[in-house]
Design goal:
Pfam families: HATPase_c. With about 325 residues, this protein is of the alpha+beta class. The protein is about 60% helix and about 15% strand. Helix 1 crosses helix 2 and helix 1 runs antiparallel to helix 3.
Amino acid sequence: MQNYYKAYLREKQARDELEELLEQKTSKLYALNIELEKKLEQLQQQQVAVVQSGKMATLGTLSAGVAHEINNPLAYLTCNLDTLASYSEDIGGYLSAITRLINNEQTFEQFKSEIDQLQQSVTTTDLIQDVSDISEDCIEGCQRISKIVANLLDFAKPKIETDTEFDIHEVIDHATELLKNKLKQLQVTIDCEKELLITGNKANITQAFINVLVNAAQSCNEKRELDPQYKATLKIKARNRDNHAVIDIRDNGKGIEEGVINKVFDPFFSTKPLGEGTGMGLAVVYGIISNHHGVVSISNNSEGGASVSIRIPLSDSTNPLS
């Protein structure tokens, strides 16, 4: 009986030690989990900071082109408003003549003579048509400036954006619109299938496309410096392939040296002279696309230039049977 009791005590002690050990391990595991969550949060914050830093660097690249895009409509707005100001004097002349006739301050013959004299400067038909055309031009110019500023603000402002569903075509249009001045010397062709809907952070995806397009434009510009007869082309194609949006961005620039092509997505790697590049452009692209469960690759074209291929899963609404 005593042996059974001793065995029981040994078993109880072993069980107590095991429970204590399990409690210690559970407590330690909980602490490690808390620490892991903190590290994950820090990593996410750092990732947001890197993307935002990339946006700021891109804004520096965009600034001159955006200023030019705003100055163009501003120039004809100023010219049109000057013309409208001069037309206001002509309109005032017609209104004054009509007012004097209504108030019996002049005879109809005097009114007709005054109108004939005003018509020699500008006819009422031309005046009405010109004012209408100029007003439409002014509205179009204001809308153009408003769109540029809205796109720039939407791209630049830091924000925590929840995932939304959007068409990849919208992103391509947004990116090329912001880079319109930078791409003006390239023959740009866009060929996108409709309804390529993906779910994710639209602002970050736009950032990724801008980075790729900026690199393509710079490559083409560098080649133009070596060959003045060179005609730069940029082709953007988007297709639905196996429930993925596959976007190919192909330029005919100078391409990438084979010895470094495997390093282009590495952080801080740059082929530009010291001080001219952050080395984060394509690294940011890689991070953004990876976060959207996609893949990005780059290769040289046999005919010259380089191609970037981006593959992102389509959202469920695009493929309801998937």
